[in-house]
Prior knowledge:
The complex is a heterodimer of chains A (about 200) and B (about 230). Chain A is an all-alpha fold and about 200 residues long. Chain A is about 70% helix and about 0% strand. Chain A is globular.
Amino acid sequence: MPAAPAYPAPPPVPDAALLERSAGGDAAALDELFRRYRLVAYRVAYRLLGNEADALDAVQDAFVKALANLDRFRGRSSFKTWLLRIASNAALDMGRRRRRDGWNDRPPVPATPESVGPDDRPPPDHDLERADLRRLIDGALAALPAPQRQTFVLHVDGEMTYREVADTLGISIGTVMSRLFYARQKLQKLLADRVLP
Amino acid sequence: MTPPPDPADLPGPWPDVLAAYADGELDERGRAAVERWLAANPAARACVDAQRGLSPENWRLWRDAAPPRPGPAAWDAVRDGIAIRLAATRLAEPERASAASSVRLRRVIAAAAYSLTACVVLFPLIGMYVVYPRDPQRVVEGRVRPPADDPLAGITVLRIATDAEVDVHRVDGAGAGGWLPVGGMPLTGPLALATADDVELEEAEEHPAWPMGGPRVRRDPADAPLLFPGANR
Lengths: 197, 233
């Protein structure tokens, strides 16, 4: 019996089409946009806030603002850069409010099987090492000035190129280089002998 | 250490551009320039390695330090929250649009009402003016009306005192310009016409307007302004 022909997977629906359908109230389109970008928005927000519950709040705020203000977006950049710009600004604002209000002790969201990471289930001690490493890096990032932190996080956790970071923050590529260079120099000092070889 | 590469070869400031080199973000020209410089300065490789150690290229570090991933229930709660808030926003939009159009309508009605009221009030006044036009205003023979050949006729006059307030006496032997106004000080204080910064005096004593030689003027804010009549008026 001949093998069934392997059909290539259909190309993903472009963001622009999903945005249009979502603006018309299509729940499936909203779900798909959320599924595509929730993790990257969450990683950026988490690195800027250091707290899972706050990061999820920032993600929700970012999606609502991004989708409710599409007239300001007008497709000048990708939806991802538009969303991450809003998410990072929302996270920085939230962090400032939390510090001002002295409310920075929210309990973490309970761990689930998914929370151990994308790879194979690691042993518990590895989980602890991972948490320690994360705390070290989060603490070092928190010591950076907000512009450097935001630029660094958008590049590393937002997986953005220099051009995308520049467009997202409305700065020049030279400024992106400077912020990343000096952010890494400070991080290198803060993390030396503990994280980096 | 050799001088940095030619800035014309680099897309950013030096040494910040080493971050872009570590991230592989430089074009061929910039990359070649940095590599030539590194070949001449091998000690600087440590700086590049430090930049690379914290770049996305060190994926193992970032994977190990990745934030805890929320579970499906947490994601569902976020998505539901987004859907609810967006629905509320969309529901509020027609209300806002309706409220805006209502405000516009009220403004149009108010403008029309004001216009109508203005017409009702102004119409009788305009009608009375048409029926009973005002007499032409009598012109008082001006005591200071300049003669037709007054060379200063086109110059705005700053009136300090009228001829009712001062007596003008002729000083014998002083020539045509020998008129002395006598009277009370018409002004209660100094009249600041300009400061020393507002005017520029050039060679005042040699100017033809000062045939007898004018005073030497020091540009000092404490100096009082000097006024001379250009002609008898």
